Automatic annotation (TrEMBL), chain A:
Residues 371-587 form the Histidine kinase domain. It comes from Aquamicrobium zhengzhouense. Residues 326-357 form a coiled coil. The keyword Transferase applies. The chain crosses the membrane at residues 7-29, 172-197. This is histidine kinase.
UniProtKB/TrEMBL annotation, chain B:
It comes from the Bacteria. This is Molybdopterin-dependent oxidoreductase. Residues 51-119 form the Oxidoreductase molybdopterin-binding domain. It holds the Pfam family Oxidored_molyb. It comes from Aquamicrobium zhengzhouense.
């Protein structure tokens, strides 16, 4: 059954039935009123009586006239009967009675008799005895007419009555049929009414069931559901809301929300509810909320919607969900992510460092290879050449020449040995196998001795030692290693400075540090920066043709740093390069620090 | 004691009455009847056409005049037509005893000299055949029972 049919049956049919009901009722009422009207009986319908009385009066007049002939004293009786006769005739000849007589077909008879009335009056009115024969002759047609009229009137009245009864029966029959129709319509309406009541009850039951289901839904929702009316008085407060706010339903329904919980007094919450009441949905996420007597905040998501009845807004519905755990989980995830990022960064740094180290190692071995190919091949070539000469000219060589050749080869071998030692020193240093013995050491005296020795080895170079000012410069260091460092610095200065230039050496104490500076004429490669000279196996452009493996300054700086000191390079204004050994001053050292220290460098 | 009528008798009242003039009855000539408080009535009748103007006196005035005491009035016409009427009906309706119609005296040869006229147009209940027969014309006698 589709919608149209149902609407037709539900609405159109009852209306049609009511219309039929009304029409039939109106019809019945009309019919009944007609019957009521027809039930009146007019006096004219009593014509038989009127005619019979007129007939009687006429006969009585005749009788009175006959009597008067015998006894003239009855004259007043004759006049009385005459008057009665006239009265009856005038009744018959007047108004409705006359029309009725004309209908019955006695118009001419009445007129004819009216014409004889003067003669009749003359007969009755004469002082003599009336002519009875004439009187009878005058009255005879009148009496005959009245006899026929009575006959016809009776037939007409009965016909009328019969017709009237027929009509009335018809009308009553129509009324009965109408009443039956009314009864049917009434029954139909009654049945429709009963069905409507049953349907309404069924719908009410359904509605109640749905309402109960809705209440169950609202009640069992894990989300807090609250409804308010336009005055913000609470109308729905489900169990989840009870748990969330710790307020039971009997303390909320009918109360204003602001009185129920302080949460609803917060400005933005009130504003959101106000927007919903004005017809706009509103959502507030991660709203902190403190339960009375608890210091930890709960976090809730609040969504407000309008409650509408048709177009009209009747209130607002609030959905509140506890997101505290979700928020905590999100925070934990964020923390975890931060930690991971940090870890990744650290690992990346470590990997970068490892990569850098690997690259440095690769560079180291490349430099080592270059250095070996140059520095080791040269002495070997010298030795080879000396031995070849010895072998080729073995018969005509003088002993001095043999000695000369041999000593050349030995010098070359000595250089090789030194190179191997230096390489091994470097390896030991890398492996952390260098032992440091810290003790007070007069650096001024040490410098003086070393310069003296250097001058003896290379008398053609002028070394100028600037004496120590004031107190002796006592450093806190390992004297053996300090000597190695200074020897290296001095031999470098001799090796890389032009002939004829002086080498200045000075020692001074300042700020609890002892500094020994070795200065010589020379230039540095600009492109790589000054500190490149401290890298292992570095050989500058000015190192061409000069023996060395580029490891001295590296070892010098590493050793200095192992003794809490340093070796740095300073460039002067007049093309002078100065290497400074910087060591701690002995006066600041306590007894505890005098114990032997063992340093080890990571690989 | 009523005065003796001087003219011809028009109406005779008998029965339960306290005022009489001849032989325990009250006889009236036209003069005596016209001396009663006159009354007028316009109404249609069952036996004539149109509305007629009647002149006469109220039946209850006459009954009071003769000191009538009873429950029923029997009205008799010249042709011995007799009708019983409840006496209190004359208190309920202004029933006229007419001697004039449309300004003309009622004649004995028509509905006269006296005609009981009901206010038919004034009261719907009186438009009924059961009242129509009480319109006694050529009235000559009233018996109070």
């Amino acid at each position: 059954m589709n919608w149209t049919t149902r609407a037709l049956l539900g609405v159109a049919l009852p209306i049609l039935t009511i219309a039929v009901f009304i029409v039939l009722l109106a019809y019945s009422l009309t019919r009944l009123s007609e019957v009521e009207r027809d039930m009146r009986i007019e006096a004219t319908q009593n014509m038989l009586w009127v005619i019979s009385r007129a007939h009687l009066a006429s006969l009585q007049l005749s009788e009175a006239a006959a009597t008067s002939t015998a006894d003239y004293a009855d004259q007043p009786e004759l006049r009385l009967r005459y008057n009665v006769f006239l009265s009856r005739f005038s009744l018959l000849d007047d108004g409705p009675q006359r029309r009725r007589m004309e209908q019955l077909g006695f118009a001419n008879a009445l007129r004819d008799f009216r014409n004889v009335l003067p003669e009749l009056a003359g007969l009755i009115g004469s002082p003599e005895i009336p002519d009875i024969e004439r009187l009878h002759g005058l009255l005879a047609p009148y009496n005959a007419m009245l006899g026929q009229a009575a006959n016809k009137a009776m037939v007409a009245e009965w016909d009328d009555l019969g017709n009237k009864l027929d009509i009335s029966r018809d009308q009553l029959w129509h009324i009965i049929v109408s009443l039956a129709g009314i009864a049917l319509a009434g029954a139909a309406l009654f049945i429709h009414f009963l069905l409507a009541i049953r349907e309404a009850r069924r719908r009410t039951r359904l509605l109640n069931k749905e309402k109960a289901f809705s209440e169950l839904l609202i009640g069992s929702s894990s989300e807090g559901i609250i409804a308010v009316d336009k005055e913000r008085c609470c109308t729905v407060w489900n169990e989840a809301a009870e748990r969330l706010f710790g307020v039971t339903v009997d303390k909320t329904i009918g109360h204003r929300l602001a009185d129920v919980s302080g949460f609803f007094q917060i400005g933005r919450i009130e504003q959101a509810i106000g927007e919903a009441l004005a017809g706009q949905s509103a959502a507030l996420l991660d709203q902190p909320f403190f339960l009375p007597g608890q210091s930890d905040a709960l976090y809730v998501d609040l969504r407000c919607f309008s409650l509408r009845d048709g177009e009209r807004i009747v209130g607002s519905i609030l959905l509140i969900s506890d997101v505290t755990e979700r928020r905590a989980a999100q925070r934990a995830i964020a923390d975890h992510r931060d930690r991971l990022e940090q870890l990744v960064q650290e690992r990346t740094q470590e990997l970068d460092a490892a990569l850098t180290r690997e690259r440095a190692t690769a560079e180291l071995y490349r430099n080592f290879g270059t250095m070996v190919s140059h520095q080791f091949r040269t002495p070997l070539a010298i030795i080879d050449s000396a031995l070849q000469r010895l072998m080729r000219r073995r018969n005509n060589l003088t002993p001095d020449e043999v000695l000369q050749r041999g000593s050349n080869a030995r010098q070359a071998i000595e250089r090789l040995t030194k190179l191997v030692e230096s390489t091994l020193d470097s390896a030991r240093l890398d492996a952390g196998q260098i032992e440091i013995r810290i003790q007070p050491c007069d650096l001024g005296q040490l410098v003086y001795d070393l310069c003296l020795r250097q001058s003896e080895q290379t008398p053609d170079r002028k070394i100028e030692v600037i004496p120590v000012e004031g107190h002796a410069a006592i450093a806190h260091c390992d004297p053996v290693h300090a000597e190695n460092i200074l020897t290296n610095l001095l031999s470098n200065a001799v090796k890389y400075s032009p002939l004829g230039t002086t080498i200045d050496v000075s020692v001074e104490t300042k700020n609890c540090r002892v500094e020994c500076a070795v200065s010589n004429q020379g230039a540095l490669d600009r492109q790589d920066g000054p500190n490149v000279v401290f890298e292992r196996y570095f050989r500058g452009t000015n190192a061409e043709g000069r023996p060395g493996i580029g490891i001295g300054l590296y070892i010098a700086r590493t050793l200095a740093r192992m003794q809490e000191g340093d070796v740095r390079i300073e460039r002067g204004e007049d093309d002078r390069i100065t290497f400074v050994l910087d060591l701690p001053c002995a006066t600041t050292v306590t007894a505890k620090d005098e114990a032997p220290l063992s340093h080890s460098e990571p690989a | 004691m009523l005065a003796i009528p001087e003219g011809p008798f028009v109406l005779e009242v008998r029965g339960g009455i306290s005022r009489t003039n001849i032989d325990g009855a009250a006889y009236f000539d036209m003069e005596m009847l016209k001396a009663l408080p006159s009354a007028r009535l316009e109404t249609s009748t069952a036996v004539t056409d149109g509305v007629r103007r009647f002149g006469g006196f109220l039946m209850r005035d006459l009954l009071a005049h003769v000191g009538a005491h009873g429950s029923t009035v029997i009205a008799t016409a010249l042709n011995d037509y007799m009708i019983e009427i409840e006496i209190n009906e004359f208190d309920r309706y202004d029933v006229l005893v007419a001697y004039e119609m449309d300004g003309e005296p009622l004649l004995s040869s028509d509905k006269g000299p006296l005609w009981i006229v009901y206010p038919r147009d004034q009261h719907a209940a009186l438009k009924d055949i059961r009242y129509d027969y009480r319109w006694v014309w050529q009235l000559q006698r009233l018996d109070i029972r």
